[in-house]
Amino acid sequence: MGTFPTRKDIPPWVKIPEDLKDPEVFQVHTRVLKFLFGPHGSRIPHFEKVSRAMFELKTLESSELTEVLVYGSYNHKLRAKWMLQSMAERYRLRQERGMLHLEEAMKTLELGKCWE
């Protein structure tokens, strides 16, 4: 038996009670969610509307992870999970590329010191 969300503003496309049972649950780094969802979760309503699902976030104690619960029909839950995980992976790859550029710049600076 799944737990019911604590939200009071359940989107109109979520069917009560059948869509509120057995949410899709996964964990994402908190800083990635802040990037994806914007300041104070301002973009969550947009993500919910596009995915036709409802999100509930639970910050895990003593962890850098946030638990994401996705409510909705089976297909909408899977699409929302895929969408978030894909965007999180894209963010991770961009961060990784940025670090590589930073490392290259640092090496260039170090090489420049050798020639002085």
From TrEMBL:
<dbReference type="GO" id="GO:0005737">
    <property type="term" value="C:cytoplasm"/>
</dbReference>
<dbReference type="InterPro" id="IPR031952">
    <property type="entry name" value="MOEP19_KH-like"/>
</dbReference>
<feature type="domain" description="KH-like RNA-binding">
    <location>
        <begin position="11"/>
        <end position="95"/>
    </location>
</feature>
<comment type="function">
    <text>Involved in the maintenance of embryonic stem (ES) cell pluripotency. Dispensable for self-renewal of pluripotent ES cells and establishment of germ cells. Associates with specific target mRNAs.</text>
</comment>
<keyword id="KW-0217">Developmental protein</keyword>
<dbReference type="GO" id="GO:0003729">
    <property type="term" value="F:mRNA binding"/>
</dbReference>
<dbReference type="InterPro" id="IPR036612">
    <property type="entry name" value="KH_dom_type_1_sf"/>
</dbReference>
<protein>
    <recommendedName>
        <fullName>Embryonal stem cell-specific gene 1 protein</fullName>
    </recommendedName>
</protein>
<dbReference type="GO" id="GO:0010468">
    <property type="term" value="P:regulation of gene expression"/>
</dbReference>
<dbReference type="Pfam" id="PF16005">
    <property type="entry name" value="MOEP19"/>
</dbReference>
<keyword id="KW-0694">RNA-binding</keyword>
<keyword id="KW-0963">Cytoplasm</keyword>
<comment type="similarity">
    <text>Belongs to the KHDC1 family.</text>
</comment>
